[in-house]
Design brief:
This protein is an alpha/beta fold and 421 residues long. It has 2 domains: 2-42 and 302-418, Lyase, Ornithine Decarboxylase, Chain A, domain 1; 66-276, Alpha-Beta Barrel (TIM Barrel). 28% of the residues lie in helices and 24% in strands. The protein is built from 10 helices and 20 strands. It has helices at 43-58, 74-82, 93-101, 116-128, 141-154, 178-190, 211-234, 253-256, 284-296, 395-398, and strands at residues 2-3, 17-18, 38-42, 63-64, 88-90, 106-112, 133-138, 160-165, 194-200, 243-247, 268-272, 306-317, 320-323, 338-343, 351-352, 358-362, 367-370, 386-390, 403-407, 413-418. The longest helix is centred in the middle third of the chain and has 24 residues, at 211-234. It is globular, with a radius of gyration of 23 Å.
Length: 421
């Protein structure tokens, strides 16, 4: 990727450079070397989170195929794979193509695939990339008929590898009852278009941070998964050398981790798909990980690695400052950004913000920072001041950027990643 004047956050007066050369520019964000607003990644937190999650999985005999839809960043996929990830998960064929083009060789599309154009693309992808393994989800006879019709119309010899999805009533996709799912598994076994490789579910919709509720509901869901895996194994529905059992969002992955293995006649690989663990956040997932820490009696879990740096552009009335960032720059679907630190351009370090500072609203390009106008003057924001905000829900901050610098703890740029939504 080239950084140039067309890329948000890159100063338009600078000449174009390759993304991989960002670490050679000597940029220091507290010196104002890049344009704000700017989403950044903290390198030390990224590495901590990579190590923490890999150790979590390894100690339980599990693998991880983190959800690549969170970041859509090949550079971050490379770091996850280098840290030991089994593969990368995606939400659709388009996203899977990004992974395949950048060296990912084990892909789970944690969604249904049935459109002819997507099956065309997936078939071509499998032929174009030697050693590529792709798994996608099937949850209905109707979907299976679409796949078989595509194969007949194209006179294709492609055999897709699929996972049977079990779902939760009132929630997203997936078979709702055992008999429906088992009938589908048998139909997959007889179909020339697909081969069954395992069982999949998604438990994230159950998360409430009420321990007993979450534990009981996850256990019930995973008992269904275990029952289905045993039934499919007994009826010889699986056609691959090993059986995959996969689940795991980013909120209650510790609970599904207890149930991701089964005693079958074939080897079983349990795979978590958590994606937001890599950058974590300052609100939504921080609260969920506090609950994980309580359940596992941990002193430390994940660290927030993503921030949005902005500048105070106006203080138009007492108690209100306007920041140069808005809905086009930062996530707001779950929570408002959270002020974390302040600095003046040229400072060598950041300072914390007063407790009464809060972002209360966003426009397209503006944020409303409210503060106590009666507080001492040194607790007031001032025009030109830098403000670093934590975010809630990394997925919907990543999709607003084409690149992000990676910074050390002094906000020196040490690397950069592309974002490809």
């Amino acid at each position: 990727m080239q950084l140039n004047a067309s890329v948000k956050g890159y100063p338009s007066h600078l000449g174009p450079i390759d993304l991989k050369d960002a670490n050679r520019q000597g940029w220091q964000l507290l010196q104002g070397d890049l344009s704000f607003p700017l989403a950044v990644l903290k390198n030390s937190a990224l590495q901590h989170n990579l190590d923490w999650m890999q150790n979590f999985c390894r100690s339980r005999g599990l693998d991880i195929a983190p959800h690549g839809k969170t970041t859509m960043s090949p550079e971050l996929y490379a770091r996850q794979l280098a840290a030991g990830a089994w593969g990368i998960s995606f939400a659709n064929v388009f996203q899977a193509g990004l992974g395949a083009r950048h060296g990912v060789r084990r892909i789970i599309i944690a969604n249904q695939v049935l459109q002819a154009v997507d099956l065309d693309s997936l078939s071509a992808m499998l032929q174009a990339h030697a050693g590529l393994q792709v798994y996608f989800l099937v949850d209905s006879m109707d979907q299976l008929r679409w796949i078989e019709a595509w194969r007949d119309q194209r006179q294709s010899s492609t055999v897709f590898t699929v996972l049977l999805e079990l779902g939760i009533e009132g929630k997203r996709t997936g078979c709702r009852d055992h008999e429906e799912a088992f009938t589908l598994a048998r139909a997959i076994r007889l179909s020339p278009a697909v081969q069954l490789a395992g069982i999949e579910c998604y438990e994230g919709a159950l998360a409430t941070c009420h321990h007993e509720h979450d534990r009981a509901n996850v256990a019930a869901l995973m008992a269904r998964v275990q029952k289905m895996a045993i039934a499919c194994d007994s009826d010889q529905c699986f056609e691959t050398d090993e059986v995959l059992i996969t689940a795991g969002g980013s909120a209650i992955f510790d609970l599904v981790a207890e149930h991701l293995t089964a005693h079958l006649r074939r080897p079983v690989r349990g795979i978590l798909r958590s994606g937001c663990y890599l950058t974590h956040d300052h609100v939504q997932y921080r609260q969920h990980l506090k609950c994980v820490a309580e359940r596992l009696n941990l002193q430390e879990t994940l660290r927030p690695a993503i921030e949005l740096i902005s500048v105070v552009q106006s203080c138009p009335e007492p108690g209100l400052a306007i920041l140069a960032m808005g809905k086009r720059d930062v996530s707001y679907d779950l929570d408002m950004p959270v002020p974390e630190w302040r600095a003046h351009v040229g400072d060598v370090r950041t300072r914390g913000v007063p407790a009464h500072w809060a972002v209360t609203a966003l426009n397209d390009q503006h944020a409303y920072l409210r503060f106590d106008a009666q507080a001492p003057q040194d607790q007031h924001p001032v025009v030109g001041q830098l403000l670093g905000c934590g975010i809630s829900h990394p997925c919907t901050t990543f999709d607003k950027w084409r690149w992000m610098p990676v910074v050390d703890d002094e906000y020196r740029v040490v690397d950069a990643v592309s974002v490809n939504f």
